[in-house]
Structures are given as C-alpha cells and as structure tokens.
Write a structure and sequence with these properties.
The chain has 11 helices and no strands. By secondary structure, the protein is mostly helical. Helix 1 packs parallel to helix 8, helix 8 runs antiparallel to helix 9 and helix 9 crosses helix 11. The longest helix has 33 residues. Pfam families: Mito_carr. InterPro entries: MCP, MCP_dom_sf, MCP_transmembrane, SLC25A44.
C-alpha cells in the first residue's frame, strides 16, 4: 500500500504505513500495492477527485473551527453545533462555504505532500530501515513543502471565512454585498488580497508560517506511530475473519483525533496569528492565556475532530479502490483481491 498523509488534516491524504500493514499482511495475506506499482497519472487524477469530494463534505466544519478559534470567549458562538445553526440561519448554506473556491487551490499542496513524502521515505530507507525514522523525516519534509504552498492560500481563505453579517471578526472587511455570488465572490477574494498587500505587503501572505509548521509537522509525525499502535491493537482484538478494512477505518480516525488533541493548542495560535495579524507566537499565546485561560487552547477542537473523522474514514476505505484503479495495466492480472 502506498503511503501519504494530507492538511490538515485541513490541507492532504492520510494512509496506513507499511510496517503496520505488513503485520496485517502476515495475518490475512493482504497484497500491498507499492508506490512503484502505480500508474502515476491515474493516481493523481483520481486522487484529486477523491480529495475534492472530501473537501466539500468537511469544509463547513473547517470554517466553524476557524470562527470558534478567532472569537473572543463565547461572544458569538457557544460551540460547534451552535455555530453551525447560527451560520446556517443568518447566512444560509453559502455562508458555510465562504472562501471555499480559494481553498480548493490547496489540492496542489496535497499532491505535493504525497510526492515529497514518498520520495523522501525512499531516500531515507537507504540510511535507515526504521519505519519510525522514515515516517518522521518524510512526514516533516512533506509538511514543510506543503505548508510553503498552503499558507498563502490559508491566509486568504481564512479572511474570507471571517466575513459575516453583523459584527466584524477579522482584520479585513470585504466592501459591498456579502450575499453576492459569481463574479462578486471572486471580487471579494481580490478585495481581501489587496487589503493584505496594502497592510502587510507580500509578507502578509506568509503570516503564521512558522506557527503552521509548528502545527502540521508534529501533526503529520504524530499520526504515524498512533495509527500503527491502534491498528496493531485492533488487529489482535478483531476476529481472524474480520476484514482488515474495518480496523483500518477505525484506526485512522482514532489516530487523527489523538493528533488533533495534541496539536490543537498550536492550531489555535496559528489561526489567530494569521487572522488577527499578530506578529509573535509567544505574545499571542500569552494574550490567549490571559483572556481565556488554558481552555482557550482547546477552542475548535470538536469541530476539528468532526471534520477529520469522516475524511480519514473515507480516505482509508477509499484509498484501496483508488490504488486499484491506478494500478499499472501490466500488473492488474497479478493482483488478486
């Protein structure tokens, strides 16, 4: 099975590592499709289509998480469900998808993540056979490349997420009708970009870059050992006849939830740095602790887990089908499912 983890679990594709699947292969004779077995053209085309479908389903919760993390205390929303209902009533379904068109450009970073991860892992394997070492180095390198592409897109899309009727949430306010669609929607994006350039210059598009790296590199690295741990435990607990896809589908969300809990404090700080125009991670942390205490570091956690759970399940379950479709033609007959 080829390996790779998506954003964000909000930015790329997550998948079980070789060592954990190697154990499962011994028990159930699972045939593993390696990176070199894939038709890369099919893999990228089908992968983008699958990722796009996942983004459409989880984007509303990404928007909700961002608003929860930026708001002061509980001034606007009292939780994930409350925010969902209020946004839906006040702004309609389109309100849950503000900034979505801009955010779709992160599909590029997702594919860059997978490619960097695979190539780095292959390179590291020449020096170490430890799966942990390969996963940590490859995951960190892939996150570095992906975030370099993702951060400018995130900055713009997050400011668009903050556009709402009534009280201003972010630094910038789009002029004109927030209910507009089509050309007006693209006009809002251009307006935000111009305001960022006037206020901060080109550096403004990389505001929170360090905070993003401190959030997503650990998230990418932490996911691997926890996925291995959960998959290993479930493989021993499940009956012999239990399909391996069942405990894979369970292990993915468990690992994603664990990684989210561990990295959410940095994610809150990252969001505030990018949306509120903060210049210091330390000062942002101190201000957050002074205003809201330790619980402020957990803001938006439930929305983050909710958005990560379905995407992880779909990816773990759907990735096998994606790879079967992407298998090189000359190898199709040699694989038995």
């Amino acid at each position: 099975m080829a390996r790779g983890i998506p954003k964000d679990p909000e930015l790329a594709v997550q998948e079980p590592d070789r060592r954990s699947l190697g154990t499962m292969e011994d028990k159930r004779n699972i045939q593993i499709i390696e990176w070199e077995h894939l038709d890369k053209k099919k893999f990228y085309v089908f992968g983008v289509a699958m990722t796009m479908m996942i983004r459409v389903s989880v984007y509303p919760f990404t928007l909700i998480r961002t608003r929860l993390q930026v708001q002061k205390g509980r001034s606007l929303y009292h939780g994930t469900f409350d925010a969902f209902v209020k946004i839906l009533r006040a702004e309609g379904v389109t309100g849950l998808y503000r900034g979505f068109l801009v955010n779709t450009f992160t599909l590029i970073s997702g594919q860059c993540y997978v490619t960097t991860y695979e190539l780095t892992r292959k390179f590291v394997s020449d020096y170490s056979q430890s799966n942990t070492v390969k996963s940590l180095v490859a995951g960190g390198s892939a996150s570095l490349v992906a975030q370099s592409i993702t951060v400018p897109i995130d900055v713009v899309s997050q400011h668009l997420m903050m556009q709402r009727k009534g009280e201003k949430m972010g630094r910038f306010q789009v002029r004109g009708n927030l209910e507009g669609q089509g050309l007006i929607a693209f006009g809002q994006t251009k307006d935000i970009i111009r305001q960022i350039l006037r206020a901060d210059g080109l550096r403004g598009f990389y505001r929170g870059y360090v905070a993003s790296l401190l959030t997503y590199i650990p998230n990418s690295a932490v996911w691997w050992p926890f996925y291995h741990f959960y998959a290993e435990q479930l493989s021993h607990l499940c009956p012999q006849e239990c399909p391996h896809i069942v405990f894979q589908a369970i292990s993915g969300p468990l690992a994603a939830a664990t990684a989210s809990i561990l990295t959410n404090p940095m994610d809150v700080i990252r969001t505030r740095v990018q949306v509120e125009g903060k210049s210091s991670i330390i000062l942002t942390f101190r201000q957050l602790m002074a205003e809201e205490g330790p619980w402020g570091l957990m803001k938006g956690l439930s929305a983050r887990i909710i958005s990560a759970t379905p995407s992880t399940i779909v990816i773990v379950v759907g990735y096998e089908s994606l790879k079967k479709l992407s298998l090189r033609p000359e190898l199709v007959d040699s694989r038995h499912w």
